[in-house]
Amino acid sequence: MKLRPQTVTLKDIARAMGLSIATVSKALRDSHEISPATKQRVCDYAEKHKYRPNLMAQMLRHKNGRSIGVIIGAIPNNFFSDVLNGMESVTFQKDYHFIITQSLESLQREKKNLEHLTWRAVDGLLVSLSAETQSIDHFKKVHESGIPIVFYDRVTNEIKTHQVVSDNVDGTYKGTMHLLENGFSRIAHITSSKELSITQERLIGYKNALEEKNIFFNNDYVKYCAHGGKDRDEVEEAIDQLLAMKPMPDALITASDRITISALAILKKKNISIPSQIAIVGYSNFSAPEVFQPELTTIHQPAFEIGRAAAELLIKLIETKRPPTKFEKRILPVELQVRESSLRVR
User: Fold this and answer.
1) Do 204 and 139 have their domain in common?
2) Which CDD domains has this protein been placed in (predicted)?
3) Is the pLDDT of residue 308 over 50?
4) What is the extent of the structural domain holding 225?
């Protein structure tokens, strides 16, 4: 992370371009009072010189508005809800305001959220990438401007900064190994977008367990949900494809809260008996998995601890007086919680 550079002000832009401060301000706010040509010239100059709305930042700080921006996949998600609770436990104690935005797995929303948060002059960002995100140039630009970022859960190695994740490889390894040791051998894996770090790491754990038990890896048994299961139809399509296989899988390991719960509901709707026809192990931070019938075996992530650690690391970056030279990737352990959905019926 670089030290924040001395940013230009509205006054600097106005002086350099021979315009009034009011004209520059209106141009940057896309006012109808300013001609398109002038607005374009002002915006181009502001972008080139990394202008940020310092007047707004001063206003927020004057109101004791130290703030942290958060980008998550979706709030109605048990994992992310727990993550937010962990973050808030730190930010409240440290007297930082908390601004939450949802990407809803959309790259366009992610970019808009980032634009909004930087306009609000947040002091730092906590980011989990959307399922559609492939290029992270929009985050690189913000990071290079001096705004510290910490990535959590869905991370990238293209920006040198702290990361906080769960042990994704170990999670699917444990879940797959549990199924294998209970006599299941045709284990399918329903997962998220291919681009996400969590998808890639969880696939490694799945493959490692199969290899250890000398089970052939069948690529047709891996189904990707491009939007992480946000759209239930994509989960149902994956299940339909698996059920049509000859022979069909005898077990599933699912890679997110939404995919896990949707898969369980879809299989029950199709009158597939669990676990006698298909067993299930799924990533889920659902607060009461025992209410499902059968009770759901889950890979439980330390979501609260992920959020807390990410917030702690970000605040350290914000408050440091010297740019850090070393960054850490915290990998927190997961827990396999065995219940009826994954046990072989004797």
Assistant:
1) no
2) HTH_LacI, PBP1_LacI_sugar_binding-like
3) yes
4) 168-301+335-342
- Of 236, 227, 222, 19, residue with least CA distance to 107: 227
68 and 31 part of one domain = no
Output the CA–CA distances (angstroms, integers) from residue 342 to 26, 173, 254, 279, in the order listed.
61, 15, 12, 5
Q: What is the secondary structure of 133-196 as a DSSP string?
A: ----HHHHHHHHTT--EEEESS--SSS-S-EEEE-HHHHHHHHHHHHHHTT---EEEEE--TTS
The residue-averaged pLDDT of 312-318 equals 95
Q: What is the token pair recorded at 77?
A: 């998600």
Does any domain span residue 21?
yes
**Domain identity same for 35 and 137:** no
pLDDT tens-digit series, residues 141-159: 999 888 999 999 999 999 9
Three-state SS across 276-333? Answer: CCCEEEEECCCCCHHHCCCCCEEEECCHHHHHHHHHHHHHHHHHCCCCCCCCCEEEEC
Q: Torsion angle, CA of 270/272/274/279, rounded to 10 degrees?
A: -100
Same domain, 59 and 42: no
128: nearest Cα among 146, 148, 149: 149
Instruction: Look at residue 218 and give its three-state secondary structure.
Output: coil
Of 165, 192, 171, nearest to 307 by C-alpha is 165
pLDDT at 1 over 60: no
1 belongs to a structural domain = no
pLDDT class for 208, splitting at 50, 70, 90?
Answer: very high
Band of pLDDT at residue 62, cut at 50, 70 and 90: very low
DSSP 100: E
What's the domain count of the chain? 3
pLDDT digits (tens, 9 = 90+) for 16-45: 999 988 888 788 877 777 888 898 898 888
178 with 158, same domain: the answer is no
Do the domain assignments include residue 258?
Answer: yes
